[in-house]
Automatic annotation (TrEMBL):
Name of the protein: GNAT family N-acetyltransferase
InterPro entries (alphabetical): Acyl_CoA_acyltransferase, GNAT_dom, N-acetyltransferase
Highest taxon in the source lineage: Bacteria
Coiled-coil intervals: none
Naturally occurring in which organism (per UniProt): Brevibacterium metallidurans
PANTHER family reported in the protein's UniProt record: GNAT FAMILY, PUTATIVE (AFU_ORTHOLOGUE AFUA_3G00765)-RELATED-RELATED (PTHR43792), N-ACETYLTRANSFERASE DOMAIN-CONTAINING PROTEIN (PTHR43792:SF1)
Domain N-acetyltransferase, first and last residues per copy: 9-178
Amino acid sequence: MPEITTDDFVLDRPTLNDVDEIFAIESDPRVWTHFPSGRVTRREDAAATLARRMSRWERDGLEMWMVREVPSGPIIGFAGCSLRGGTEAEPKGPDAFWNLGYRFAPEAQGRGLATAVSRLAIDRARQVDPTLPVVAYLLEHNTASARVAQKLGLRLRYRGPDADNPDSTAVRLVFADRELTPPQLPATLR
């Protein structure tokens, strides 16, 4: 059963049946032009990620949606808010935040889908737990993602080195809907 249906797309929770479509997106080098080392190269890694997302939907009440063409077309991407920071024992610890993320097949990019789905994701995150900030972190040279974050009303809260990036010159930007607490900001940099 879809979570949300609009004139342009259908959002639903992930299932393990989605693994091949998600792997096709995650393994496409065109999707990873801003962070080539993040590309998924093994189907089993995509399956493990989907299993974690399914589990987090149950635990947190929100995670990434699978984005499909209407009425019941193929998956063209995924987007949503995921709970980050915290620990397994205390997922909503003092460093917890909603991480806004989106990734679309190249053929679906440039159509405004990231912005449209992200608006819905932010609204849902605020319904599930409005005490947590919504954060989008990205690399500075990913100007399209930065524009989406700005369109959504997120403000730049941090600009600095991307510590674990294989590219030592990479710069991370952290956008958020509010100021981040001293425990939250470092959690966005891991």
